[in-house]
Structures are given as structure tokens and as C-alpha cells.
Amino acid sequence: MSVEERLPTDERPVLVFVGYADTMTGFITTSSYFCFDANPHWQWDGLTQDEQKTLFWMPLPEPPGKEG
């Protein structure tokens, strides 16, 4: 989902796409949105060069369960 539509409401790790809005060139990683900080921010914002920023995110999938 786009960060413009909605942001995470807790600080659990999520799957994110960090990149350039005009070319969609970037990388996928896990990050947390620090929503309870005085200045809410993504872990990666300010740590990447140029104009890269977190553009999309989604909850991490549940880990596989044990069978048997």
C-alpha cells in the first residue's frame, strides 16, 4: 500500500519498497515506521542518498507453521 494512503499504526517491522517515485528504482527490505516519536519517520528515511524514500509497505506474512 502507498505511504500516501496509510501508514503503520504500530512500530512492528513491515516489508517496504524504498526508491525513487519517478522511476520506481530502489530496493525491498524490512523497516519500521516510528509513529510514536516526536518526529515520526521510517528507519531508512535520511539514511539513503539522494531522493530515495519509503514509497510502499505491507505487513510481513505470518511465518510458516509446523506440520505434524
What this model shows, in words?
- This protein has a domain at 14-59.
- Helices cover 0% and strands 34% of the residues.
- It has no helices and five strands.
- The chain has a three-stranded antiparallel sheet, with no helix packed on it.
- Strand 3 and strand 4 form a beta hairpin.
- The radius of gyration is 14 Å and the shape is globular.
SSE topology:
Blueprint: E1 14-19, E2 26-31, E3 33-34, E4 41-42, E5 53-59
Antiparallel strand pairs: 1-2, 1-5, 3-4
Radius of gyration: 14 Å
> How far apart are the termini?
35 Å
Q: Helical region count?
A: 0
Helical content band: under 10%
Structural class call reads: mainly beta
Query: Based on CA inertia axes, which overall geometry fits?
Result: globular
| Unreliable sequence segments | none
Q: Largest beta sheet: what is the strand line-up? A: 2-1-5
Report the biggest beta sheet as strand number plus sense, adding barrel if it closes: 3 strands, antiparallel
In round numbers, the mean pLDDT is 85
**Percent range for β-strand residues:** 25-35%
Task: Count the E strands.
Answer: 5
What is the string of helix and strand elements? EEEEE
Give a quick rundown of the structure:
The chain has strands spanning 14-19, 26-31, 33-34, 41-42, 53-59. With 68 residues, the protein is mainly beta.
